[in-house]
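Notebook entry, structure prediction.
Reason for the run: the old model in the group folder had no record of what sequence produced it. Starting over properly, with the input documented here first.
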Amino acid sequence: MESISERINLAKKDKYELNKLIEDYMPFIKKAVSETQVFGIDYDDKLSIAMLVFMNCIKQYSTSKGEFFAFTSVCIKNRLIDELRKESKHMNVTPLYPEEEQEPQSVEASASIIRYDKDKERQSLVEEIFLLKETLVDFGIDFATLEDISPKQKRSRILCMKMAQEICSDEKLKESFIRTKQVPQGELVRRLDISEKSIEKYRRFVVTLAIIIIGDYSGIKAFLPFDGTGKEAK
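New structure, fully documented this time:
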């Protein structure tokens, strides 16, 4: 299976590969549209705009821009908001954003919204898992092996989270990690006073944690058994 980076490089040169990439990642594009909650633009129009942005991101993408899907999500969001502002200006109306106060809703309406939100969360989680699976391929990791490579001991899990957080909290380490697809073993040995043997033993699990932390995986992050300090949540 080709990695996302390989597919992007092919899509830059081949129109067929470009269209196939857009088709394969339509769930991601739809998710980005649904998460940018702006009102005043038809859904089909927003989806068309997002598809064009996705296509342009493929053409413009380089590893210096960070993880592809995180980069593209920001581009889609910004483009949709810009489009809303232009439409609002032409229509001489005030843009409506989710944070504005709205009229109190009935109990029935509130219940419907809760049900909708839960369904949306489930669908978003499915899409996140799909994207994570594809991204892991780029790092040489099979999603199906995650359960097998996860540390069984609490102490080992905490160590892995510390390594992942060390990578993600330092811009140079993070850039190197994204660019080379490799764990910066030397820096982790020096900073955390651990052996290269330990790093190699848990390398795939650390890579997975780092990808989740860096990427747009808010749903998956909620399932991580760690708090913000790297300690296991109680």
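Summary: The chain has two domains: 4-100, 107-234.
The old model has been moved to the deprecated folder.
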